[in-house]
Specification:
heterodimer, B: two-stranded antiparallel sheet, 22 helices, 70% helix
Chain lengths: 537, 536
């Protein structure tokens, strides 16, 4: 963020200019980044036996400390990390520490804690159970043991996760397109690696990783190209400048603005898995290690929707009529495709993947309300969905047959009769996804739909009606899972639910309890989300 | 609301069964014990309910009473607001009476399984019925549209599990069909609920019924909102052509579930029509009356015809309900005090009479091991007492004078004739059809030659060893079954001779609803307010 002036070019700012940073405002970001770096050092220096424990403790402590620092940062809201543009004497800020940004950061941190705790599950083994120490080995084989003995552990997943969390926190905080791109890459690269580390069903995992990486690279390229076009249009990548330029810009320049805005949105919509940029979601969700899937589903969605909100409400707000219709179409497609295709799924993780696509569509309905209420509803939705989805994937990782996860739906038959508590929790989460009252899912859907009907005009009402119909379709899907678990008889080679450690139990319990609490007494969080719904410019 | 008393009666009424459900489900102990506790909790609820009813001030029966109001989700304008008027009160009391009866009748519905946790299934079954009781109280007592919607939808979940886990061979199909039909209706209503709030004054308590009553809505908006609400209630009630889920759900579920489903839950549909469609959208209600009345008459006739054709006893009973719901809706949309008061009384009576039909038929089914009517015949000779109560239940179903349902059916027809003469005349033929389906069923099941291979227990005792050969003894009513039957038959007779016990509570609330309609549509019908308080 500082410009070093080469001596040969006199037009650039002559002197070195230090950007003024409010360090307390970005303290949460710094803590997470620092923890990630320390994690790398731990990987290098800590002894093999203690590495896992140290890494988990460090990650959780770092996340909690950062979450506490949010309270501090909340007192230092505003634009920060800026420098003065010499020629126009304007202040340019790279980061916006405001309500939505801090709310998203806190959400990502808390969900991150649950994610890390699920990843730490060992089931009595040496390293985390879900991850492979060496790509070529089968689980429990001699090769794997040899790899483990040679020191190939899997505790590097924790620093990787921390880097991803850092990127996710940065994503909704950045105030310019280049910063957003950097955050996008910082959050994506560790996720590409994490997706490929599944210990079982290696081929699926590698396919997932490669697919995610290639498609992610494409989407990043789209984003970057869109940034270039928008820079060409506005002469700046800062959201404030962009917004002003669109307000004042001539119509003739729309040849740059429209494709630019569209391409930037493509990059972001890819991350939330919106149709037609969703093709990676089922494969990656299925192939990635299940705890990583849960983490990705919850936190990536939070980060990307934070970024979409900022881009739509701050950067491109004045050019709304250029891109709204396209986004409405995307939202409609996302809801319909996500819910219809989830009907035909036979794999639990793919089913949850399509469900997450449908949910992305519902959240987009809230985004399209273009109102403070809509922002608040979106923020609430993301929290509620995040807690439910992490718990759901954590439960998926417990249901096993012969040591491997039993993700085929037919394998879940009769689970409720043999493991009533686990199946009951999962059924409750399914009801929350379906949006049944007294679960958080209902309050979130009510929030986005009422915001859409309230301020979205006729389009909003259409979106809400389609959303309601799609909810009805997804109810069938979730009810079918409950039918399988509770109303069907177990097959002879029945699956078992492995007894998890305290950490996984904790995340499942917190996720489920949050789903209930946010359904019965949502007003505290709604209030917070409402107060946090104002962007700074 | 009105600070009649500071005791939160309705919250207590809802909490007792909920606590009971937790105790029954999670306190260790034998299944027998759990069943007794479940009955205990439901009886306590009933007693508290009766005490609460004595606190109800009939003179101001128009207002919501026994209630309370707290802010719940102020951001959405939602309050936790409860209260009952006369209509809601009698329906809640009916639900409270039916629950212990159903629990008692359900004693042997779920066999105890072997193993250390074998009793858990039984406990779950009884606990779910208690949870359902909580929601039944809540849904009739809610005076906030959002809260009503929450109970309306949340109620589906225990029923879904009751059908899907404890039902017959096609229970999965039936449970799914029930859930999807109800949710489809409910979700359409959700859009209308949101839109209604946005039409109203808004604010932190903008969902209260009293704040949404008497809005001056744009006619098109009002009609759309009406359709959104009515669709959900028509599915729930159920009216032809949205009735197809009911026979499956009622046949495949256990008798106790079927009783609560048809006897109480479906009343939420007709209750919702009075409380929401008529009160909130009076103009649209009169606009839609021709269609609604046509559907109601269609339900009366079509449901009865289908009932005549059934060979499955439970299916037959559920189709009779479709027919009865037609009468109820007809009475509601007649817009007269007599008609609507009759409809409300009909809801109560139908709750008891359908409970009797389902539960008594289930007693037969358990003895014979089949639901098919052709598998019976001549049972009067081996189980005379059971045949007797079955006949009483049937006669109550066909509205025999002297039994309670006669009063309500008569009131509905009298009340409707002044405003909907043609429809009423056609609907009256439903009475003849009712006699057909009930008496034909009784004839096929009870009369005729003695069934082969079966013998009444008393005769069985009299026979010697040789005479008994090849014969199976069939027990007549057990003590438990007599306990199930007695309160139901008592209700028929008491409400048959003293309908004013209920009507005096109901009518002020009905007048209030009608006065809302009258305000919005002044030239509705002059007959509406004339026939005050007539009973018989």
């Amino acid at each position: 963020m500082t410009a070093v002036a080469p001596l040969a070019l006199p037009t650039l700012p002559a002197a070195f200019q230090q950007s003024n940073v409010d360090y307390l405002a970005i303290l949460p970001l710094l803590i997470v980044f620092g923890t990630a770096l320390i994690g790398v050092l731990v990987e290098a220096f800590a002894s093999r036996e203690r590495r896992h424990a140290i890494q988990v403790t460090l990650a959780v402590a770092g996340l909690l400390a950062a979450a506490a620092a949010i309270i501090l940062a909340a007192k230092h809201q505003g634009l920060t990390m800026g420098l003065t543009d010499g020629s126009t004497n304007r202040q340019l800020f790279a980061l916006a520490i405001d309500g939505p940004a801090l709310f998203m950061q806190a959400t990502i941190l808390l969900l991150g804690v649950l994610g890390v705790l699920t990843m730490a599950e060992r089931f009595g083994g040496v390293g985390p159970d879900a991850f492979t120490p060496s790509g070529a080995s089968t689980p429990g084989s001699a090769t794997e043991t040899a790899a483990a003995r040679a020191g190939a552990l899997t505790s590097e997943v924790f620093p990787l996760t921390m880097f991803a969390i850092f990127g996710m926190m940065l994503f909704p905080t950045t105030n310019d397109l280049i910063g957003m791109f950097v955050a996008l890459e910082v959050l994506s690269l560790p996720l590409y690696i994490l997706s490929g580390l599944a210990r079982r069903r290696r081929l699926l995992s590698q396919e997932a990783s490669l697919k995610y990486f290639l498609l992610g690279a494409f989407s990043s390229a789209f984003f970057l190209f869109g940034t270039a076009l928008l820079y060409g249009y506005a002469g700046s990548v800062y959201f404030g400048d962009l917004s002003k330029a669109i307000a004042a810009g001539p119509l003739a320049m729309n040849g740059l603005l429209v494709p630019g805005a569209f391409l930037v949105f493509v990059g972001l919509l890819f991350k939330v898995g919106a149709v037609p940029f969703h093709a990676w979601t089922p494969d990656v969700y299925q192939g990635a290690p299940t705890p990583v899937t849960g983490f990705m589903a919850a936190c990536t969605k939070a980060a990307a929707f934070g970024a979409i909100l900022r881009l739509g409400y701050v950067g491109l707000d004045t050019g709304r009529w250029e891109w709204t219709n396209a986004l409405v179409l995307v939202a409609l497609l996302t809801m319909v495709v996500g819910s219809v295709l989830s009907v035909t799924q036979t794999d639990m993780k793919r089913l949850l993947a399509y469900s997450s696509i449908a949910h992305a569509g519902f959240i987009l309905v809230g985004v399209l309300a273009f109102d403070r209420k809509g922002v608040g509803a979106v923020l609430f939705y993301i929290v509620a969905y995040g807690f439910s989805t992490i718990a759901a994937f954590a439960i998926v990782s417990l249901v096993r047959q012969n040591g491997a996860e039993a993700t085929h739906l037919s394998q879940w038959a009769g689970l409720g009769k043999r493991y009533p508590v686990v199946a009951g929790a999962f059924a409750f989460l399914m009801l929350a996804f379906a949006g049944i009252p007294l679960t958080s899912g209902f309050v979130s859907k009510f929030g986005v739909f009422s915001a859409a009907i309230g301020t979205g005009g006729a389009t909003g009402t259409v979106l809400a009606i389609v959303g309601v119909l799609c909810s009805a379709i997804t109810v069938f899907v979730y009810a079918r899972v409950i039918v399988l678990m509770f109303f069907s008889d177990a097959p002879d080679d029945a699956v078992e639910v492995v007894i998890p450690s305290v950490s996984t139990t904790f995340s499942i319990a917190i996720g489920t309890l949050a789903t209930l609490a946010l359904g019965v007494l949502p007003s505290a969080l709604l209030d917070l989300a409402d107060r946090a719904s104002q962007f700074v410019r | 609301m009105t600070a009649m008393s500071t005791v939160p009666w309705l919250t207590i009424l809802g909490l007792i069964p909920l606590v009971g459900a937790l105790v029954v489900a999670f306190v260790p102990g034998s299944a027998e014990n759990a069943k007794r506790m479940a009955i205990g909790f439901s009886v306590v609820t009933l007693v508290v309910g009766i005490i609460a009813a004595t606190q109800f001030d009939r003179a101001s029966g128009k207002q919501f009473q026994l209630g309370e109001q707290h802010s719940w989700i102020p951001q959405f304008g939602v309050s936790y607001s409860l209260g009952v008027d006369g209509i809601a009160l009698v329906l809640i009391l009916m639900a409270l009476v039916l629950t212990p009866i159903c629990l008692l009748a359900a004693w042997h519905d779920v066999p105890e399984e072997a193993g250390p946790r074998g009793g858990q299934r039984v406990k779950t079954y009884f606990a779910l019925i208690l949870v359902l009781e909580t929601f039944m109280v809540g849904v009739f007592a809610a005076t906030d549209v959002f809260l009503f919607y929450v109970f309306f939808e949340a109620m589906l979940i225990p029923v879904y599990f009751l059908i899907g886990r404890f039902g017959g061979p096609r229970r999965q199909y039936a449970a799914m069909k029930f859930l999807l039909f109800s949710l489809a209706g409910g979700l359409i209503m959700l859009v209308a609920v949101i839109a209604l709030y946005l039409q109203g004054p808004g604010g932190t308590d903008g969902f209260l019924i009293e704040r949404l009553t008497g809005l001056s809505l744009d006619p098109t908006t009002e009609r759309l909102l009406f359709v959104g609400f009515f669709f959900a209630f028509a599915v729930k009630a159920p009216m032809v052509p949205f009735h197809t889920w009911l026979p499956d759900a009622a046949t495949e579920s256990s008798p106790a579930t079927a009783t609560l489903l048809v006897g109480v839950l479906d009343k939420v549909g007709t209750f919702g029509m009075i409380r929401f469609c008529l009160q909130l959208f009076p103009e649209a209600s009169t606009w839609a009356t021709p269609v609604v009345v046509a559907l109601a008459v269609l339900s009366v006739i079509y449901g009865a015809l289908l009932a005549i054709g059934q060979t499955d006893m439970m299916r037959l009973v559920s189709y009779t309900s479709v027919s009865h719901f037609g009468f109820i809706v007809l009475g509601i949309f007649a817009f007269t005090t007599v008609g609507q008061g009759g409809s409300t009384l009909y809801m109560v009576n139908h709750g008891f009479s359908t409970a009797a039909l389902f539960l008594f038929a289930a007693m037969l089914v358990r003895r014979r091991g089949s639901k098919r009517i052709p598998d019976f015949g001549g049972w009067q000779r081996i189980t005379p007492a059971l045949a007797g109560i079955f006949l009483v239940a049937g006669l109550s179903g066909l509205a025999l004078p002297g039994l309670s349902s006669f009063v309500s059916e008569f009131l509905v027809l009298v009340g409707s004739f002044s405003t909907q003469p043609v429809a009423t005349v056609i609907a009256t033929s439903g009475i003849i059809l009712a006699a057909l389906y009930i008496l034909l069923m009784y004839k096929k099941v009870m009369t005729g030659p003695k069934p082969e291979g079966l013998v009444g227990e008393r005769e069985h005792d009299r026979l010697d060893e040789r005479g008994r050969r090849g014969l199976t003894a069939v027990r007549d009513l057990t003590t438990r079954e007599k306990l199930v039957a007695a309160p139901l038959i008592a209700a028929f007779v008491v409400l048959g001779f003293l309908p004013n016990l209920a009507l005096n509570v109901i009518n002020p609330a009905v007048d209030k609803t009608l006065s809302h309609v009258q305000q919005a549509v002044p030239n509705l019908n002059p007959a509406g307010t004339v026939a005050e308080g007539s009973s018989k």
